[in-house]
Automatic annotation (TrEMBL):
Substrate binds at residues 71, 116-120, 177, 182, 256-257. It is found in: Cell membrane; Membrane. This is Dihydroorotate dehydrogenase (quinone). Residues 50-350 form the Dihydroorotate dehydrogenase catalytic domain. Its main location: membrane. The active site is at residue 180. The gene is pyrD. It comes from Runella rosea.
Length: 350
């Protein structure tokens, strides 16, 4: 029903407006007694065989919601009710910011893809942390953090540390986002020197915060992951592997959106008119899987990888896992395929 009735109606309206409408509708429905239970019956698939332990955390299933869908931690309960094993909020910045000018989210229907240039629009780390402290579900939460647009790259570390401090007691793992194409200069932070500096500083801060919270016992600090772009060369991926290994962070999320527009079915003039932004969805499927396989093989599976990019079916999720990913995340496929996608993937993995 979703693909032949609901989706065509939703796709008649602006993509970002529809996103806010759907999110608002979910929030409203989940306040009605009995609806959360009904959603769980319809969309949650549980089986012990789906459980995973990755970077010290126990996941009920390996299918997560990728960052970007729930930027402000407003839909954690609702996403748990739609069958996800974990939810990644953000990208969150220290200060609230409006993001880039609208329109900034576009559908490429022939490609089952999206182009976005949102620009880290969010309400700030403090607002997200406040909501997470009030949540009722125990679903695992990832905190995807970035820098404010007006913060120069030489001061980027300060922004990552501020987000880290604000969210530390409210999330289960952190994701350092230096790979979005929609914040000017952000991808420059993927270079070896600045990236190593950021990751080592966050590792040090994590240990300090954990020791402060657990004065009588020594606990492992919160896992830190790095989210990388699909547009990196093999040489750059080799650098990423070296950085992750030497900094001893928990793992990698591969991949973010791409700036490539190769081999699209959508009319070239339409794509050109849309302009800049990160492309997600089906056109990214093959490249993101390539990156996952390269990293896992070249690193000899020395750290976990979360696979994301173009997953719109159980088969595509399986391809990511077979390439070496320990977990997967969905976003664009969730929009095109509907609310049952996480359940479908979980059932296929049993």
């Amino acid at each position: 029903m979703y693909k032949w009735l609901i989706l065509p109606i939703l796709f008649r309206f602006d993509a970002e407006q529809v996103h806010h409408f759907v999110c608002g509708t979910l929030q409203f429905l989940f306040k009605i007694p009995g609806v959360p239970f009904l959603f769980r019956q319809l969309f949650v698939y549980e089986d012990p065989s789906l459980e995973r332990e990755v970077f010290g955390l126990k996941f009920k299933n390996p299918v997560g919601l990728a960052a970007g869908f729930d930027k402000n931690a407003e839909l954690v309960e609702e996403m748990a009710g739609l069958g996800f094993g974990f939810v990644e909020i953000g990208t969150v910045t220290p200060l609230a910011q409006l993001g880039n000018d609208k329109p900034r989210l576009f559908r490429l229907k022939p490609d089952q893809a999206l182009i976005n240039r949102m620009g880290f629009n969010n309400q700030g780390a403090a607002a997200a942390a406040k909501r997470l402290r009030q949540r009722k579900t125990n679903i695992l939460i990832g905190g995807n953090i970035g820098k404010n647009k007006l913060t120069p790259n030489e001061n980027a570390l300060d922004d990552y540390l501020k987000c880290f401090d604000e969210l530390y007691d409210t999330v289960d793992y952190f994701v350092v986002n230096v790979s979005s194409p929609n914040t000017p200069g952000l991808r420059d932070l993927q270079e070896k020197e600045p990236l190593t500096k950021i990751l080592l500083a966050l590792k040090k801060r994590s240990q300090k915060l954990e020791n402060r919270q657990s004065a009588t016992t020594t606990k492992e600090p919160k896992p830190i992951l790095l989210k990388i772009a699909p547009d990196l060369t093999d040489s750059q991926l080799d650098d990423i592997i070296e950085i992750v290994t030497t900094s001893k962070i928990a793992g990698v999320i591969a991949t973010n959106t791409t700036i490539s527009r190769a081999d699209l079915a959508t009319d070239g003039e339409i794509v050109k008119k849309i302009g800049a932004g990160g492309l997600s969805g089906a056109p990214l499927t093959h490249r993101s899987t390539e990156v996952i396989r390269y990293i896992c093989q070249k690193s000899n599976h020395s750290f976990p990888v979360i696979g994301v990019g173009g997953i719109g079916s159980p088969e595509e999720a399986r391809e990511k896992l077979d390439a070496g990913a320990s977990l997967v995340q969905i976003y664009t496929g969730f929009i095109y395929e509907g609310p049952a996608l996480a359940k479908r993937i979980c059932k296929s993995l049993k």
